[in-house]
Design goal:
Elements: H1 6-9, E1 10-13, E2 21-24, H2 25-64, H3 100-103, H4 111-119, H5 121-124, E3 128-132, E4 135-139, H6 151-163
Antiparallel strand pairs: 1-2, 3-4
Helix pairs in contact: 2-6, 4-6
Length: 172
């Protein structure tokens, strides 16, 4: 039988509720390995989930947004380019014909603002009534899109847009 030295082969742990517990270092090492494996597995699952969410966001963007918006830095569709939209000031692309409501809005397209807007545009940016002669009109947004009304799908699109980066030159 091998000699077992408590001083060199054990760790004394003093939890708040006890004077101390002596635990063999091999058990401490095994616990550390198990914790490490758990953290590694959790991080892999999280990374996998993020990649999956990005793929869903990209697919949703193509299905819901790409008919009108591009992701090219200098090219607009019938809607403005969404390249680098996260962090950009609203109505910031020079030369694009925005509605008066958007031109007079003063906010940044943060993740939170994009989520609200994509989920339900008319709630995020309410219509401002205007009068042209005797006709009362709504000058809200020039977009037929009514919103996703699905928070998870909306977050996936915003996560995808955020993954494309922020274009500093569009900031005002």
């Amino acid at each position: 039988m091998a000699n077992f030295n408590v001083n060199t082969q054990c760790v004394k742990i003093k939890p708040w509720f006890h004077n101390g517990i002596i635990i063999p270092k091999t058990i401490v090492n095994m616990v550390n390995i198990i914790i490490g494996i758990f953290i590694f597995t959790w991080s892999i699952q999280t990374i996998g989930a993020n990649e999956q969410t990005l793929a869903v966001g990209k697919a949703l963007f193509k299905g819901e947004c790409a008919n009108c918006h591009t992701l090219k830095n200098t090219e607009n569709g019938s809607g403005p380019s969404l390249y680098g939209i996260v962090g950009r000031r609203v109505a910031a692309i020079p030369g694009y014909k925005y509605s008066t409501t958007l031109l007079t809005s003063n906010f940044i397209w943060s993740k939170e603002n994009l989520i609200k807007y994509i989920n339900n545009p008319s709630v995020a940016i309410p219509c401002r009534p205007i009068r042209i002669g005797a006709v009362a009109m709504c000058d809200g947004i020039h977009m037929s899109f009514q919103g996703l009304n699905n928070l998870n799908a909306t977050k996936a699109i915003v996560m995808y847009l955020e993954s494309l980066g922020v274009q500093q030159s569009y900031k005002k």
